[in-house]
User: What shape does this take?
Amino acid sequence: MTAINPVTDLSRDGDVAVITLDSPPVNALGAQVRAGLVEAFNQANASDAAAIVLICGGRTFFAGADITEFGRPPAPGPGFPELMVTIENSKKPVVAAIHGTALGGGLETALCAHFRVAVPSAKLGVPEVALGILPGSGGTQRLPRVVGVQKALEMVTSGQPISAKAAAASGLVDAVVEEGKLLEGALAFARQAVAEGKPLVRVRDNDAKLAEARANPQIFADFRKANARKFRGFMAPENNIRAVEAAVTSASFDEGLAEERRLFMELATGPQAQAQQYYFFAERQAQRIPDVPDDTPTRQVKSIGIIGAGTMGGGIAMNFANAGLPVTIVEQTQEPLDRGLATIRKNYERTAARGGLTPEQVEQRCALISGSLAMDDLKDADLVIEAVFERMDIKQDIFRSLDAICKPGAILATNTSALNIDEIAAVTQRPQDVIGLHFFSPANVMKLLEVVRADKTAKDVIATAMKLAKKIGKVAVLAGVTPGFIGNRILAQRQREAQKLILEGAMPWDVDRVLFDFGFPMGPFAMSDLAGLDIGWVKAESKGATIRDVLCEMDRRGQKTGAGFYDYDEQRNAIPSPVTEKIIRDFIAKAGTTPRQISDEEILERCLYPMINEGAKILEEGKAIRPSDIDVVWVNGYGWPVYRGGPMYYGDRIGPDKVLAKMQAFQAAMGEAFKPAALLEKLVSEGKKFSDIKA
Ligand code: 3HC
Assistant: This one.
């Protein structure tokens, strides 16, 4: 064995040279890895080996370029182009042996090998689009040559990896070898290739799979059209498509490569890539809690109890069943319990009908969820999540019962989105075991989980909740106890301004359009119509005091009644409503104010700057650990466009001084709702940004 450098070894297994890279945690292709690879390939090619196997140590094949190198001056040593050429021009068969994840530059490296083998658990993909870029080391040129244009378009624009099995079906891997026996499998494949004299065809030289798209260039327009909604606002999907298109239309591979480079640079130097890469690290950073170190012991969670079989309880239960954990749902009476369990089954069956689950998986998951009418059945649960009506007295009663029933050390969680968790914990003898787990609706779909730390929550309970969140596929963010926690507290600012704006002269569709164009999936009024205007509305008490009251009194309760702020046609298209417009105008007239023309700029600033300001208040009160945690909440839970990073990142892009100046101007004109946060003032006075704040 020769150590090429600290992360690269070159060894021999009989007649085959084996190049092994081991650069934890994920073998990212940073400068040292690239240098080691180029040198190892040069030496292996110069040796008398008959073939070369490229394999990685640790948990995965190369997970991509080293993202920490992005935006820095080029590192010394060989870059990607040299690495790719070195591998691709090897004179002996090169077999890439893949386990874990071959992602981005990692898959591009494997595409320069002559052959690829993988274990069944391996995943292969090009996630660059999620970082606002494209696979810029020939990936967009080689991938369609291997898997065909349609599949390549799907892979580069979705960023989703595919399984080894799917990779074998599409030609991306040449053989799937036994789990745990990757090296043996790769060596055997290499020897067979030598024995059979398999031709060493470089991917770049094989155009066969481009022929179909060359004959049918319409494929690109069709793909754009089919995905227009998904790609709205993002720059990266379009450049990924253009790069694959270049593979098809260019006169030569190198010409396509040059176009790929140009499209890559356009993205890499743009604002969206910066925001999306910031966000990649923000999500990972959110897992770090300064006073709860990574090695904090966790509690065992093998069985879950849920109280409440409503929409929330059912959705929460599905998360755990999806991860293979048994769940007991407790209700007070049979009817809502049966309804809740039936809804869960219906949801799974709907997924199965779309091909997302097999019928067996539906049965397995449903079998993991059982119903009960007895709280006593939760006595052995490791974690109980309460998901009942938002009333303090009801929740406190439940926690008193849980305190009496549950085994010592069980974690007692509440899914409250608004109530004070300290007050809930206080009725138990074990406040250290009480925590908030704020799921977002629909709980089986939404990625965000606010983990809420109450005054006395034990550190191992927090550590357990954060790890468990990852296990069930959630992105967890730690929040402190404050009304609405991080997400809803900030949302309240936007809601208030949206409501005020329509009493000053903007129409609901004006506000919605501005926020939609900013990149939100929908504006606040369209959102209300979707959720139902009657949430929290009580008919008997309604006196036409708000626009919402009047709409509900007219039975315009949102999409479900065919009208709300908007009118709806048969296809549920929202149409600005003359009825709503008249109601608003009447309100304004009654208040004796004069409607004014409100610019799009004002709508945006009125809605967003108070959110940034509220984020600053949350930070100064210590209810969020760091600005980027707030961004993770808003991107994951509220549809803030990831290509704008999140509210705090956006505040930095605008400039905290500009946000402060605007808040001061709003405060002077419209009062204390706009009072700038002390932290915002401090940042500006020190010439700093939110990103300068460390946890
Ligand atoms: N570069 C640098 N660091 C990386 C990295 C990368 N490509 N991928 C992961 N890491 C780091 C993470 O930041 C994290 O660091 P931390 O422990 O200090 O927080 C650590 O590796 C472990 O990552 P995860 O916590 O995400 O571990 P998981 O096991 O959950 O996931 C993974 C592993 C699936 C590989 C996931 O990390 C991932 O998706 N990584 C990004 C992959 C990617 O986007 N690759 C493309 C890069 S761009 C590219 O290749 C451009 C090329 O075309 C030129």
